[in-house]
Each structure stands twice: as C-alpha cells, then as structure tokens.
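Q: Can I see a sequence and its folded structure?
A: Here is a first one.
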Amino acid sequence: MATPQTGATATARAPLRARISWMLFDWSVQPFYTLILTFLFAPYFANVVVGDGPQGQSMWGFGAAIAGIFIALGSPFLGAFADGRGQRKPWIALFSVILAIAMASLWIATPAAPSSTIYLVLLAFIIATVCAEYTAVFTNAIMPSLVPQSELGRLSGSGWACGYFGGLASLFLVAGLIVPMGDRGTTMFGLDPLLPLDTSTREGDRIVGPLSAVWYLVFMIPFFLFVPDIKQKRVHDGRPATAELWDTVRALPQNRDMLFFLAARMIYTDGLTAIFTFGGIYGASVFGWGPLELGIFGIILTLIGAFGALIGGVLDDHISAKFVIVTALFLLLLGAIGILSVDKNHVLFFLDVAPKEAGSGPFSSAGEQVFLAFAIVVGLVAAPVQSSSRSLLARLAPPDKITQYFGLFAFSGKVTAFLAPLLVALVTAVTQSQRIGMAAITLFLIVGMALMAKVRMPARRD
C-alpha cells in the first residue's frame, strides 16, 4: 500500500561530472572497508598482531563497539547540521583529514605486537571508523539535491557499485602488484612487488593502512571540485539545531512508516555491519587463510557486490525500495546461516568433508567452496540493502524536511551500531567459539526484516 505525499518540488538533475564526483566518495572510502575492515587487515590483526584468533576477534569487536558508541553519540548533532544548516564540505574536509591520518597509523601493527602497540592500533581503527561514518552523514545529505526522486535508486545504487569497484581496484593494486604473498616473495599475480616490503615484519599486511589513506585523499579531489555544496540555511525560529531535531523525533509516532523504517534499519544495519566486520576473520580462522586466499576472496565478493548494487538500483526504481530491502535481507539471512554451517570438517552443519590439506591451493577443499558459495550470496545482496535504504529515506521524508530526515537517518544507523559487534565479542569471549559468537548476527537480520515488512511505500513522485 502506498502512502501519499504532497508538496513535492521537482529536483533538477545535476551535471554528470557532479553526480560522478559524488559517487567517487564511495570509491574513495571503500578501501577502508574492503582492505582494512573486512578482508586483509582485520584478519591480520586478529591472527598475527594479537596472535590468537578468538581473542583477536573479541578485541576487534570491542573496538568496533566503542566506535559505534561514538558514532551514535555524534551522529544526531551532525545530522542536525546536515538539515539545511549551511555548508557540508568543510565538515567533510575535516573528517577526511583525520580519517587519512588514522588509516596511515595502522602501519605500526607489527606481528605479535606488545600490548601498548595493540591498543594504539585499536585506537587508530576506532578513530578511522568514526570519521568514515561522520563523513558519510554529510555526503548522504547531498544526494537528494543531485537528481529527481524517480532516479534516487539508480544514483544510490550506482554510488554503492562505484564503491565496490573501488574496493576491487584497490584489492587488485594491493594483492596483485604490491603485497608479497606467503613465503614466495611474489604477488598474487606472480610478479615482483612494486615496493620492497619486508615479509618477516609483515609489511605487506601493514601497508594497507597508508595505501588506503593515500587512495582516499587522491580520489576525493573531484568531490571537492565539482559537487555543489548546499549553502542555504532553512528558515527557523532561532532555536538550536538539536531542538529542531527533537521536534522531529517527537513527531515520529505520527509517521508510522518512517518510524518502522528507521527502527528496521537500526536493527538490520547492526547485523550487516557485523557480518562484514567478522566474516573475513571467521574464514581466515576456519581455513587458515593467508593474504593470497583473503585477497582472492575479497576480489570475488567485491565484484559480485558491485553488480548486486547496480541490479538493486534498477529494481529499486522500477519495483520499490522496500521490495529490494526485504528480499535482500531474506537472502542475507540464508547466506549468513550457510556460512555458519561450515567449519573445518563439516558443511551444512552435519555433512562431513575432508579438511583443507596443508599446502593445497586456494579454495581447493569442499568446505572452502561451500563457504565461498554462501559468501557470494551475502556479497550479492549486501549493497542493495544499503543503497535502497538511502533512496527509501528520500522517498519517505517530507520534501521540505528531507535533509533533516537524512540526519535522523544517520542517527538510526549509528545509535545502536555497537550492539551487534559487542554481542559477537561478548559471546565469542564467553564461549571461545567464533561460530557461536557470529550466530548472534542472525537475530538482527530477522528482527529487521520483520519491522521492514510493516513499512508502506509512498506514492511515486518525480
């Protein structure tokens, strides 16, 4: 059932260079999520820097939880500023510089590091995570000013796809040309590394932080040159932005669809974040993956995710954002359960398989292949969940308060961001089982899907 909305004002399509430059934010920041948060650095931190998989996963989870708390506390205020209260770009520039410095600081993560170094690495990871999310608050708020509402799904999906392709390109650069794999001294492509990196101190793993920082700063240049900032300030009664935000929050019970959507997103985003935070760590621990396997794994999932984002954007505009989100969450749940059904000796929980043989090729065991198949399902639908959430918010929000609601949208995605990583970390620490710890993620997906089913789509408008 669609709900009507009135008072719409048509938005002119921004020039192509502005739209492409806006999408380059996703391209620029994606190496942080792809190389650091998911595929390469996080497993290296847990298994090599800390030297103990479950303990490393627990520490990484507590770090992600702390970052989530700071994101939850700060996002409402940033969202209020994003609600038509002046320029976004100065804030984006500030958090971009801090983000780059924090990513570059990960270079200090040496193997079997002392406790002081481990905590400094965790601090850099926390700061980088917070700044990446704060920056997204302002870039997301710019999106509705770039295209008509009927094209929001494709713009949002194309942005996510651009980010995935950026992650893919960064993986090819790092794994294929720079990082030596294992004891061979050559890259994944069998080439001599472009940089002279010391394998004994794992410089190949540590370099992903500085490389991600340089990548981000270089590819954000078009954003600052060509994306138009929103300079006007919405007329208000002189009260602080937080007071206006509080008025919007108090009015949410009268807007049931927005309320259910924000509640659903708050829950399912927690689960989705936890999957990407711990997925690579779990696979590396179960199968003993090194940089070669993690690099291939990352390339496959990133490529799949890019096409999933493009397909999701088209379905968003032609069917509905709700259809994309609910369908993707259901497939995401199946994929997560499938991943958890795999361990060293079993697939689908009960089927016995031969364990991976020492020295065998990447993904040569049956367990790895089943794990990869379920991971591909997760990779295919993860991006549409996120991109269609952005476009659905723009469609549900009152046209005259759309940027204010984008601030609330940011708050809903961050206010409980610490819960899923914290629950995974706690369960893992108590049970000393990474599988049981990650099983907690499925609860967030189920609850989020149930809440999302109650949302009614608004009537379409151009």
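Q: Show me another, different protein.
A: A second, unrelated one:
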Amino acid sequence: MKPIKHKVRQSFQSGQDKAVDLARSAASSLENGVDRLLNRRITLGVTGFSGSGKTTLITSLIHQLQHYPGALLAAFPPVLQDRLLGVKLSTLDGVELFPYQRGIEALSRGRWPEATRDQSGCLLEIKFRNQPGLFRRGKPGISRLYLEIRDYPGEWLLDLPLLDMDYRAWCAQCHSLFNSAMRLSIGRSYLEKLKSIDPLETISELELQVLWQEQLTFLKACQQAGLTMIQPGRWLHAEPSGDESKLPFIPLLSMTGLPEDKLGEATESSLFKVCERHYQHYLETRVKPFYRHTFQKVDRQLVLVDVLKSLNSGQEAFDDLRFSLTQVLQSFDYGRNSLLRRLIQPRIDRVVFAASKIDQVLPDQHEAVRGLTANLVQDARRRAAFNAIDVRCEAVAAVRSTTYVDYQGRQALQGMTEQGPGVLLHPDIPEQIPVMDDWQTLGQWQLRRLIPPEGLQLTAGGRLPHIRLDSILNDLLGDRFS
C-alpha cells in the first residue's frame, strides 16, 4: 500500500504545482491586460534586415535609459524635465532574455554585440514623476510604464511575404529575381542547373539534399554581396544537417514555362509535389507561428534600414532593398488600438523608420539620409497614413564611432576601422532615389566597417555616445510620459 500512497501523494503534489503555475500565469496575463488598458504597457518590436544593427541599438537603448543621468537624452522629455526616476530590466514571459549584459561587455572590449540568432526580449519598468497638470494639486504622483522589447533575427522578417504566396508563386518570383546581373554573377552555374531541372521528374532524397545545400551556399553568397531579398530568410543560418535539412525544397525555375494541365498531372513523388509539401510545412511550422505569436503582439514598431550600406553596394543592391522593404512592410498590421484590441489583438499604432549607422556620414548629410529613407518606405507610409497611423522617419547611430576632423581643407570623419584608425570621406548623399549621375559618384565611395570607440567603461555605467537615440525614444514613447 505504501507505494500506492506515495504515487497518489506525488500525483496530488504535481497537480498542485500545475494549478499554482496556471494561477500565476493567469494573474500575470490579467495584470498585463490591465496595464495595457490603462496605457501603462507597450510592446515594441525592433525589426530590420540582417546587419542593420538591431542588437546594438537595443543594447544602447537599454543602457541609455538605465544610466540616464549621464546619458545625452535631451530630446526625451522625462530626462529633460528631470522626471525619470529609474529603469529596471527583467525577463519577459515566454522568451529568452535579451543578452544585454553580453552586449555591454562586447562594446567595452571594442567589439560589436553578436547578431541575433533566435527570439529574445526583455521588460523595462520605467518609473517616473507625472507632469504637473492644470487639474493636479500638490506634488506630482509617481507612475510606471512597462516596455516590452521583442527582438528576433532580421532574416525571419524576409519570410513574412511568403504567407501570401503558394509554392508556385514563390518559384515565379525566384525566376524573376535570379535573372538579375548580380545573382547571375554570384551563382551562374547553380542557377543554370536549377533551370534545367524537370519539375515532374522524381529524384532521390540525396540528390535533393545536395541541391538544397547548394541553395544555402548561393543565398549566403548573395547576402555577403549586399543583396537583401533572400528567401527563405531562416536558411541564412541553417546548417546542412540541421532541422531545416529534414524537409528541404528548392525553387524550380523551369516550372514557370509549364502549362497548368501538366502540373496538374504531377505525381506525388515528383520533385514539384515534394518541394510543394516541404514549402507548405515550412510556412506552417516556422513562419506562421512567428507571425502569430510575435509579430501580431506588437503595438509600436521600430524598423532599422541600413541605407548607407545599400547605397555603397550599388544600384542593384539598392533596388533589391527597395523591393524587400515593399514586400515585408505589407505584412505589418496597421490599425488604431481600440479598447478591446489592446487585450485581444494589439495592432501597430506608431511606426518609426530609422536609417542606422548615421555616424558614417557628416552631420550636414543626415537630413539627406532621412529624406532618402522616407522615399524608400513611401508606399508603407501611404498605407499607414490612410489608417491614421503616426509614421516618422529618423537617422540614428546607436553607438557613435566617429569624430569630426579637418582633412585637406575640408571637414571629414575619423574613426577606428578594422584596418586601424583612418579618415573617412564620402560623397553627397541624395535625398531622393538615386539617378544615373548619383550612381556614378557613389560608385567611387568605399564605405569602411567601423568598430566601437576605445575606452568605453560601460560595465561601470559609463557614457555610451550616440546620435539621435533620444529622438527615437521620444518618437516611440514620448506620448506616454504625461
């Protein structure tokens, strides 16, 4: 009887533990819901393609807020008005903690934080004094704003447009993209092989694996060359023997020339049908859960765009960025927050598009970069404006890595590059989409990769130089500090 009693006791204890966990989860959800109803909680999504500087920006943003007395945040009202009282960093339910401390340590050693490889997030509790008002008497009260920050790899963003495409539509898009001069120069032999494959034939699993691995190599080479429109985006970090390799698929470029009735006759073992099934599985198990559980929870969105890198990579890379932005931004769920939607399905009510790494050009060119960014996202801005969404464009450097110097009678930038200290020169940046004359001038520009400034004492709370990060904070959060 004793073993039976012991098992019953264990089962009862397990049931109690589960009940406690459920109660805590329900209480937390209720508390979050109340905070959202009272405008005390905001979920901020930080997005941008790979290399745009998301991890560095989030690290810098947290550091500036936690060490606000020494930070330069003049455009952020709670700091300017001496009303900010403190900021506490904690975990966010359901996601891995954003690696803030690791990022600070990297910057203190003169290195950039590691790029995001998976979802992460954090919760900032921002404590502040209320602003004195006409109907308030006595001392201003104390309030709190809970800021959820959600971060995820920029590559995942590229997969959102796939939700509106079936496998055949994606193959047709790849057929068009792969005819570009840059992509042909990167992987001509592989692309010719893709065009020669019969979609109706049956091939072995090993042959499909080999083709898929060649596809990975090709996509990663495209990214290295400065191209942005790379799908599936998750494959940029895929390993040949990882989870993605279990159900591989490739774009069948010759399928666009086949009549409808021929494809209808394809057998279930044909390459077309196999790739179609694997493509659909990818959407169901990777893209849809991400969109449903992460993307649709966002109230406000910060979109980082590495405009300068795309300019420096040439006209085709710049046009590729434009196309990528147009495709991805159509996935944003714009719409005003209603009382119920704050609890059930939050929708984006404010968007900030920010050109990153603005410390690579002189201050008199910052407005041109901001204007060019506005032109890049003009379609998304129009859709947002139609839905009465507040849309803003900025130019920002999460970590300022350059100083100003006189060089041969003209102003220039000086910073530490991977090759050592150097003087950086650049052409005028066009405010509009570049034309042929602009590209001839830009073609002589050699953009160099900067490293963080030396001597940062961030682990001890030292100042982290930036450019207009306070404006970004004001654009995203300023209205919540009344």
